[in-house]
Amino acid sequence: MINAPNPHRLTFPLHGHLAACLATCLFATSLAGADYYLAPNGSDSAAGTLAAPFRSLTKLSTVMVAGDHAYLRGGTYGLRPVIESWESLEQLNYMNGTAAQPIVIENYPGEKPVFDYTGYANTRGLIALYIVGSHHLRLKGIRITNLAQVPDGPCSTGLVADQSTDNVFEHIEIDRIGGYGFALGAGAHRNQFINCDAHHLDDRNTAGASAWHNANGFTVFGREDVTGIIFDGCRAWLCSDDGFDLFGCDGFVTIRNCWGFRNGYHEQADGTLRAVGDGMGFKLGPIDLQYPAELKRVITGNLAFENLVCGFDENGNYTGQGIFHIYNNTSFRNASYGFRAAMMSGVVHDVRNNISFQDLAPFYGAEWEGSSNSWNLGLDLTTADFQSLDPTGVDGPRNPDGSLPVLPFLKPSASSRVIDRGADVGMPYSGSAPELGAFESTASVTPPSAPSFSRGSDQTVLEDAGARTVAGWATAISSDQPTFVVTGNTNPGLFSVGPAVSSTGTLTYTPAANAAGSATITVVLRNSTGVSSSSQSFIITVTAVNDAPSFIRGANQSVAQDAGTQTVANWATEMSPGPANEGSQTLAFRVTQNSNAGLFSAAPAVSANGTLTYATAAGTAGNATVTMVVADTGGTDNGGLDTSAAQSFTIAVSATTSSVFEANVNFQPADAPVVAGWSVDSGAAYGARAGAFTYGWNTALRFDQLVDRDLTSEQLRDTFARMQRPVRRKITRYTWEIAVPNGTYQVTVTCGDAARTTGTYAVTAEGRTILTGSPTASQRWFETTSTVTVGDGRLSIGNGATDGGNAIDCIRIVTAAPNGSG
What we know:
Blueprint: E1 35-38, H1 57-60, E2 69-72, E3 75-76, E4 88-93, E5 103-107, E6 113-116, E7 127-132, E8 137-140, E9 143-147, E10 156-162, E11 168-170, E12 173-177, E13 179-184, E14 188-194, E15 197-201, E16 218-220, E17 226-232, E18 235-239, E19 244-245, E20 253-256, E21 259-261, E22 265-267, E23 273-275, E24 282-283, E25 290-300, E26 303-305, E27 312-313, E28 321-327, E29 330-332, E30 337-340, E31 350-352, E32 355-357, E33 361-364, E34 452-454, E35 459-462, E36 468-470, E37 475-478, E38 483-489, E39 495-501, E40 507-511, E41 517-526, E42 536-543, E43 550-552, E44 557-560, E45 565-568, E46 573-576, E47 587-594, E48 600-606, E49 612-616, E50 622-632, E51 647-654, E52 662-667, E53 679-681, E54 687-688, E55 694-697, E56 706-708, H2 715-718, E57 719-722, E58 724-727, E59 730-733, E60 736-739, E61 743-752, E62 761-765, E63 768-773, E64 781-790, E65 794-799, E66 807-815
Parallel strand pairs: 1-2, 2-5, 3-6, 4-7, 5-8, 6-9, 7-10, 8-11, 9-12, 10-13, 11-14, 12-15, 13-16, 14-17, 15-18, 16-19, 17-20, 18-21, 19-24, 20-25, 21-26, 24-27, 25-28, 26-29, 27-30, 28-31, 29-32, 30-33, 35-42, 44-51, 52-53
Antiparallel strand pairs: 22-23, 34-37, 36-40, 38-41, 39-40, 41-42, 43-46, 45-49, 47-50, 48-49, 50-51, 52-66, 54-55, 55-60, 56-57, 57-66, 58-59, 60-65, 61-64, 61-66, 62-63, 62-65
């Protein structure tokens, strides 16, 4: 039938909302840019890294720019909510790469991402993947499947590109869609499909006589506003309408090395084929514009066989005009003509070197008679002219590089009469002249025998071992184009990068962080025709390694002399034996150092629930630094760690005599929370303060010298004052003083910054250095207690000679007890 425009053909407008894809180069790695990752178990609120992947293609539209590269992990991506504004399930919109830096989105090496919409309750003509306004995009290695048609409604579509140019679609499979496979339209120029497949498509639910007559594998619309389309190495089969349909396109299109077969049929549940639709392998158009002397189609090296009607069909209308070059194609066993025309009055196409064999008739229409074709040369071809007429494998797996299966089907035999019978049309050939048909003659193609290999040993690694590479794991590899495929994994959660075997037998995998256990991995070896070896299984065991426990220590302690027994609930918090797989271990705190044991009648201790207890000795005062760790029961086998990093705190016991002077001062912005029992210094110059103390700086600090980080729950360590500031390329240093009675004091100074580890600390008291340190990520704070004598009524705190950015958190000043600080 003539494929006239149909209101049910597409649900999207035809006046500029579809676009085809351009590509003049193959997939190329971006010259620069970020890498992103997607996985079926990912989240679009994640970071998009290998460890924290995104979930949807749609998310990539919001983050990717020219030069970026996205990898899709294997597995089934399943159902998603409809994007209402586009009536699609995924979209890649307004993504702008460049020729030098395309945006690349492809399958993770060795893995197959599948967008499977089985069970989706479709209530409209939805698009699985809609691409709008995107340029220099490279999309590769995905499958879209099982999107049903609406009952009595419009068609669904696997992939639509609209107003998108200079794109490449490679090794994409679209199948079992209730409508179109790939659809392109207006505004599409210089685009390319490489090694793509469309199959098992039908629109049975389209209303009226149009049912079954819309589901094409590859469809190009856009009339005159689409050109430069290239199809290379693509297949279309069991599409209820046509394999390749250019009826709506008046631009320039190239189709080369493509196969269109068994179209116009529907495969029923019992495997038989029912005739339903138009049934053209290649429907070439154009639709209605007048280009009687302009080249519009170049069709070379293609196969069309076992289609319901014709192999290659003009099927434009009576007004469309344009010249076709039809070279070296093969038509076989089509139910009507191999090559049919009758629509372009007065246009003679260049039709040479083609074969029609076992079609109802070779050609129809004077425009397609041509020369140097099997029907012009009087060749009465027989089965002896071909290596094989058995199409087994034509719908089988592609080669590892994505190319078409290597088969003997319809290739010239050694004695074939099509050898050297063609005309030179500017295409490469061997011998004295080109062959007729899609294939140059070669030695007979014998399908490779079943591949085989010897698997390597089972693998055992330690937890958190990182990426593993085992060269030569598979040996005795026998295959023409070896491709290892992992067909089973009993514990995929054990890996952040699943096991894979390269063509040379190298095994790679990466255990997931903090994961332990075992997985049985099953592998097969495939050859170029998709034939698999016997499966072989092996075990990967990840041996658990104990992670160090951890905790957050509480605040330093201050009590009065003879305070007796002290209990501080929840002093230690966030106690953890390690990751989740170590949650059954028990914890115990242990004191590793006590600088002043005589200060206590019951030594400091922390219970498993974080409660701190101690009792002060009668009649004693002073300070003690206590160091503590927590240990778990996981042991140290295989290099495990059962003890946390040590953490220290101080316990200050103050004298209770009436002559005791005590001041606790925290350096903080004025709006920061006030710690109970502590006075506040917010950078004012020396003077009287609330609480009967007199203290301050030699010069008032600027507001930006007082800092509140809001990063730690211990307020005394979360705020600080910067004791120096750059002024006119010089460093101005500040001195802090407090009025005290002349005498001897225990002075405890804490320095540190919860956010930074730069600089060095050097603090003086009464001109003597009492604290030094260089902060690191594991030790951000430094604290010291020193005995200091004051003779002028003011205790002075200043910067040492080696300071590089003192950040003073707080200071405690207590009259020295007779027995000292320990």
